[in-house]
Amino acid sequence: MLNQNSEFKSQNLKFSQWLILAALLVIVIAGESFALHTVFTSKFPGGNDFFVRWLGGRELLQHGTNPYDRAVAEQAQKAMFGRLTRPEDRDEAYFAYPLYTLYFFWPLSLLAYPWAQAIWMTLLQFMLLASTVLAIRLSGWSPPGWLFWVTVFWGIFFYNGARAIILGQFSILVGLALFLALGAIEQRRDRWAGVFLAVTTIKPQMVFLVFIFLLIWALFQRRWGLIVSFGVSLLVLIGTSMLLVPTWPLDFGRNVIAYSDYVAFGTPLENLLHYFLPASVAAPLNPILSLLFFLLLLPGWWLAWRGRPGVYFWAIFTTLIVGSLITFRSATTNQVILYLPLFFFFGRLPARGRTAGVLLVEGGLLVLMWAVFVATIEGNWEHVMMHGLLPALLLVLYALDWRALWHAAIGRRAGLV
Question: Which residues lie below 8 Å from residue 386, measured CB to CB, with a gap of 6+?
Fold first, then answer.
């Protein structure tokens, strides 16, 4: 009886500790949101990627207006640019996300935009912190404590992460959901993994290839819970949102097509090739390299599907890199998922000199990405060449060090099969 009481008190203590941590987190988020609103968003409203979604949610919530209607896009254009867009403009502000995206921020649509933006930016910062911590753990890299925290905060100030926060991009939420899914798969919590994978469909271009790999892998490994959970979760998201706007899947498809018409850039690889090479060379080279990179993934995929220990990790890391390079409409903000293969590279560096190597790579990438952005910026727009820079650099790292990285991956054991 005494042991049971002690155990009960211990559990209560643990629960109370979680409550204290949750309360502290709420206080910190509230304080930072207030500070951001005071010094930034109330004076310099921005975050256009979030604004269009916020406005769509607000119109649906307050007026019952379909967020995909052109009238909502025109309202967003006037708010963002002071006028309707012209053919040469790069953003016509269509609501080009699945309707269930609203589930993840809808309460913010009840607030004035400067407050909503401040809170959303703060939440994205903490999501990115969590994503970076998860990426370190999933990669198998175990840095010393001080380097761990340097890397966690590096993840926020690094170009791709910082830009995603500034723009209010949902890519951070998708990256966090993907890492949570991968962590749940490692822990054989397949139902949770399926739920998190369903959340990643908010931005399918971010996870398209790794998504295909994971579902087929689950099929080969008879991880039926993962497949069923994903299917049911996605049906719930789609079905419940259709109760709000029954026509939204068709409306969404129409807006995606319109988005593709006015966002006139291709894959990150295509953008990169056209920047450095003449069009006569880049145009035919792009499909050849895209196909080659995809085909290079297939041996790892097949071995992972067949259950060879450790190859699963190699397949995940390489698929994230190649997918970020050859997937259509991918951009720098989507590449927060590349923290995972980068940290795996850190973990495989020789023990002697590893800390210096990590600091050199982190510092070099930080300076390089921001410097290239400043040097190539076109008015208020990021040059599309930037879209392919980080995945291309990681691809080169993996190509130069593939033998050591391969052996490091296949040496891992995590009870996956």
Answer: 332, 369, 372, 373, 376
How does DSSP assign 98-120, residue by residue? -GGGGGGTGGGGGS-HHHHHHHH
Provide the β-strand partners of residue 378.
381
Which residue is listed with tokens 């259709």? 242
257 alpha carbon, distance to own chain's centre? 22
Task: Judge whether 206 and 334 are in contact, CB under 8 Å.
Answer: yes
- Which residues have CB under 8 Å from 92's CB, separation 6+? 73, 77, 85, 258, 259, 262
CA distance 389 to 251: 33
Helix and strand tally (H, E) in the chain? Answer: 18, 0
Q: Tell me the pLDDT tens digit for each residue of 244-299.
A: 999 999 988 887 777 666 566 688 999 999 999 999 999 999 999 999 999 999 99
Residues in the chain: 417
Q: Can you say how many angstroms the Cα of residue 184 is from the centroid of all Cα atoms in its chain?
A: 17
Instruction: Compute the distance between CA of residue 100 and CA of residue 244 in angstroms, rounded to an integer.
Output: 10
